[in-house]
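Teaching assistant's notes for section 4

Start the section by putting this record on the projector. Ask students to predict, before seeing the second block, whether Serine transporter will look compact or extended. Collect guesses on the board.
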Amino acid sequence: MVLTCWFAAYKNPSILGIIECISGPTGAAILLLLPMYAIHKLPVLAPWRGKASNVFVTLIGLITVSAIFYGMFQ
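Reveal the predicted structure now:
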């Protein structure tokens, strides 16, 4: 606990930056990746499987999440 507080005081992070780093990947995963996962796992969504748009949405979701993580660790 003391080390965590010391590190936070040393780095002096922006709270808005922290919120952006956490909510960005979470929002992208919920809006783009979670529906594609549900399409492939739930039998009721079987009519929408195998469409080119699913590949596009999954690809855009992965690019969005990876870009946010790349910016977070840069």
